[in-house]
């Protein structure tokens, strides 16, 4: 049914309660959303629940869509649902086992310069809030507005943190590239 309709038309139909339009939207977007969520979360059950919650939210709030790119809107909803799911799991883990550490995601490894590079070392030197903004805007390619929704902060804060993150990352990389006192004397022997 939805093959000849664009996403905006499908969302308008979903807002009117058209379940077939929601099915068409699901068929069109669930695959890439599932793949992208799976890269951020290694628990298939959580990914399935987040995907289901995403389309339930679309069913309930399709009328709120402002007419922009539907894929970005869907990803913002899915990413926010994933954050909520992780927070719920973290709360449950704190009750069951104190101080459980999550394994770093594949994106964290890439961001860490294949785990041990200068970029990874520099990223470790900036605050988690700044790293989160870099991840949302650079790795995920979200707009400022989408990153603000995902992170639950104002757009101006995203812009400020992105600027600070770039500045601090540049400083940290420069500090790593500068020769140490022994290196400038010709080595460590």
Descriptive terms for the model:
transcription regulation; 9 helices; Arc Repressor Mutant, subunit A; mainly alpha; single chain; WH-like_DNA-bd_sf; 189 residues; Rna Polymerase Sigma Factor, Chain: A; sigma factor
Tell me briefly what this model is.
The chain has 189 residues and is mainly α. It has 2 domains: 95 residues, Rna Polymerase Sigma Factor, Chain: A (Orthogonal Bundle), CATH 1.10.1740; 73 residues, Orthogonal Bundle (Arc Repressor Mutant, subunit A). It is 70% helix and 0% strand.
Counted by DSSP, the helix tally is 9
Q: Give the CATH superfamily of the largest domain.
A: RNA polymerase sigma factor, region 2, helix turn helix motif
Spatial separation of the terminal alpha carbons: 74 Å
- Tally of domains: 2
Number of strands: 0
Instruction: Note the run of SSEs as H and E.
Output: HHHHHHHHH
Mean pLDDT: 81
Q: Assign the CATH class of the largest domain.
A: Mainly Alpha
Strand content: under 5%
Uncertain runs: none
Main sheet properties: none
CATH topology of the largest domain: Rna Polymerase Sigma Factor, Chain: A
Query: What integer value in Å does the Rg equal?
Result: 21 Å
What does this structure look like?
The chain has 189 residues and is mainly alpha-helical. It folds into two domains: 2-96, Rna Polymerase Sigma Factor, Chain: A, CATH 1.10.1740.10; 106-178, Winged helix-like DNA-binding domain superfamily/Winged helix DNA-binding domain (Arc Repressor Mutant, subunit A), CATH 1.10.10.10. 70% of the residues lie in helices and 0% in strands. The protein contains nine helices and no strands. The protein has helices at residues 7-15, 19-40, 44-61, 70-96, 106-111, 118-124, 128-139, 144-151, 155-177. The protein starts with 6 loop residues before the first helix and ends in a 12-residue tail after the last helix. The mean pLDDT is 81. Keywords: Sigma factor, Transcription, Transcription regulation. GO terms for molecular function: DNA binding; sigma factor activity. It comes from Streptomyces tabacisoli.
């Amino acid at each position: 049914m939805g093959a000849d309709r664009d996403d905006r038309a499908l969302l308008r139909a979903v807002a009117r309660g058209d379940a077939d339009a929601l099915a068409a939207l699901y068929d069109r977007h669930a695959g890439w959303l599932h793949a992208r969520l799976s890269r951020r979360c290694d628990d298939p059950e959580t990914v399935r629940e987040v995907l289901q919650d995403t389309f339930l939210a679309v069913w309930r709030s399709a009328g709120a869509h402002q007419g922009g790119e539907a894929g970005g809107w869907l990803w913002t909803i899915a990413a926010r649902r994933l954050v909520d799911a992780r927070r719920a799991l973290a709360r449950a883990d704190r009750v069951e086992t104190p101080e459980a550490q999550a394994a770093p995601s594949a994106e964290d490894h890439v961001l860490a310069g294949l785990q041990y590079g200068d970029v990874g070392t520099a990223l470790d030197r900036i605050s988690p809030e700044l790293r989160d903004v870099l991840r949302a805007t650079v790795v995920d390619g979200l707009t400022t507005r989408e990153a603000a929704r995902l992170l639950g902060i104002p757009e101006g804060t995203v812009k400020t943190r992105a600027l600070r993150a770039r500045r601090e990352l540049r400083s940290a990389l420069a500090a790593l590239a500068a020769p140490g006192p022994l290196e400038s004397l010709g080595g460590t022997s």
